[in-house]
């Protein structure tokens, strides 16, 4: 029997029935009820801070990040095991995406050279971008999400959603990403999908001064950052609600909401707990 529920139940009924009668009905000793009533069941200051952090970030961060944020925002130093215990106590664990089994893929001929070679670190903005398309099978009909991310600060610089997985989708995404940005000699890495190997896409990239790069055929690790990002969106926004039927408009709203959260709110340990946009502003 959960003490908080017993206290709430007795409080709601004690004006109608005696405490003894209520306790007898629910199988709790009267003395136990009064012992629980004298104890404070409200969260401590530390517990409330942790609850607030998890709620504000929509339960998308783990105990290690919460520990860092307690130190950064509240100047509170606490053992991560304590943070984990409190998170488990209030059932506010982060949503964990399923781990994908590792598989070594064979090396295949590239249509254009693999300039990235799994080096996902960039020294400045607009030096290295990665892009990919993923399925969104959560609405009334299948939709597709095309995303471009800057590897310097992990910021999503552009994304587009369509009901067709064609070259127009990637062309629109690339045009949006290039709008207002310096892209000369920028490396744009993708897989060998037909959309990216099309003449139209390659010509647009060349027109913008972009150097294209491609993963080896069948090797997902060559474009791991953007693939992991797409997996995270599905895990945190959709896979926890598999039994809920969504409309296409709701799927679009959820993607838009997540993109804003990811760029402007979500803290990254490697950026001193700053979001991608906040980190960009800091180094500007």
Could you explain the architecture of this structure?
The protein is of the alpha/beta class. The chain folds into three domains: 3-38; 45-89; 128-283, Nucleotidyltransferase, domain 5. The protein has twelve helices and five strands. The chain has a five-stranded mixed beta sheet with strand order 3-2-1-4-5, with helices on both faces. A hairpin with a 4-residue loop joins strand 2 (143-150) and strand 3 (155-162). Helix 5 crosses helix 6. The termini are far apart.
* Largest beta-sheet characterization: 5 strands, mixed
Strand order across the largest sheet: 3-2-1-4-5
The CATH H-level homologous superfamily of the largest domain: Ribonuclease H-like superfamily/Ribonuclease H
N- to C-terminal distance: 56 Å
The first-level CATH class of the largest domain is given as Alpha Beta
Shape label: elongated
Secondary structure category: alpha/beta
In terms of DSSP E residues, the strand content is: 5-15%
Strand tally is: 5
Total number of helices: 12
Radius of gyration: 25 Å
The CATH topology of the largest domain is Nucleotidyltransferase, domain 5
Instruction: Tell me the CATH architecture of the largest domain.
Output: 2-Layer Sandwich
